[in-house]
Amino acid sequence: MKYFLLPVLILFLFSSPVSAANLTLKEAEEFLANVEQLYEPPDEELNKQLEQDRKESPELAESLTPTEGYYYPAVDIYKLWQKAGIEPKPLRKDSNDFLFGYEVGMGEKWNLGYPATKLYSKADFKVLRVSSSSLAVSGDYQFLFFKKKDDKWVYFDYTYALWEKYTEPEITFLDDTLFYINELGCSGSGLVDFINTFYAISDGKVELLLYCPDKGHLVGWGLMFDREYESKMDYSDKVLTIDYTINIDANTNTYEPKEGKRYCEFPLFTTNRKVVFNWDGRNLSVDKEKSQLTIDDLENIFGGGEKEYYAMFQPEFDKAKNGTTEQKEWYQLFMEQVK
């Protein structure tokens, strides 16, 4: 799970120092288009096991197809990083995870299979999104930023999105130097969370500003309610407004109801909340007078439990105290969890 909100000056561990890079946009595009056809041999150990399985289970023989060797296009992404002045570093503390599955000790070579690119433009900047088009490869994306210098577009910084498996992350500029990337925060059984990651281009660097939940749901996980949420964004005159619609359903997963089924869900409420940010060219700051949510509330839209959600939506929850029989019973037990 990605942590939602960070101060402006906290840097990601994978961030590279800004250097006097020589990489131009034209060179990057030509490099990624000039692929090498690499050969992937068949998995002999797996084929031996498949052959044994075919003998033991003739009815499954047609579905147990041996692997075959194949050629695939790739580029040595490490060479591009060297040209840009990017030094690979772990993506998280106490982790050996690197972008595009890069591994330490493999030498100055790392093949990115099925390279794909997409170009974005805004004012004085161009952004080249780099990824693999192969579904067999982890869905990592790197965004390379270029600025105009004389008659060339020259690299100056990058950011990234990790482990995308539902949609491709897109970059959207709200202002000349303010943008966000929609990406997957986390997913699993009964949960999914998409986030908007906001950045600013300042002093020749790409600065991470904050994470905001975009849409998602969480069902079960030991809580007494399920949640589903989505947001609508508006940006005008240096003001960013994000409106959230949040739907809450109660469940009986943690207790034996006096009436009705053992495991069931029933509706509680649907409500709206908004948060308003002011943009000063470098920072996004919460307008406390106009906002109905705080920075902590934004984090708790996905990650909060009974106590946090009750603090955000107390009037809506308290209506269950005088609701239906099942709502009253649920509310009494819910308040015990809150307290």
Structure in words:
- The protein has 339 residues and is an alpha+beta fold.
- It has 2 domains: 8-56 and 71-213, no CATH class; 219-339, no CATH class.
- It contains 7 helices and 15 strands.
- It has helices spanning 25-33, 44-56, 77-84, 295-303, 306-312, 314-318, 325-338; strands spanning 36-40, 70-76, 111-113, 115-122, 125-132, 141-149, 152-161, 171-173, 178-188, 191-202, 205-218, 225-236, 239-251, 265-279, 284-286.
- The protein is flat and about 70 Å long.
- Mean pLDDT is 88; it is low at 1-20.
Entry keywords:
alpha+beta; 2 domains; 7 helices; flat
Give the arrangement of secondary structure elements.
Layout: H1 25-33, E1 36-40, H2 44-56, E2 70-76, H3 77-84, E3 111-113, E4 115-122, E5 125-132, E6 141-149, E7 152-161, E8 171-173, E9 178-188, E10 191-202, E11 205-218, E12 225-236, E13 239-251, E14 265-279, E15 284-286, H4 295-303, H5 306-312, H6 314-318, H7 325-338
Antiparallel strand pairs: 1-2, 2-3, 4-5, 5-6, 6-7, 8-9, 9-10, 10-11, 11-12, 12-13, 13-14, 14-15
Helix pairs in contact: 5-7
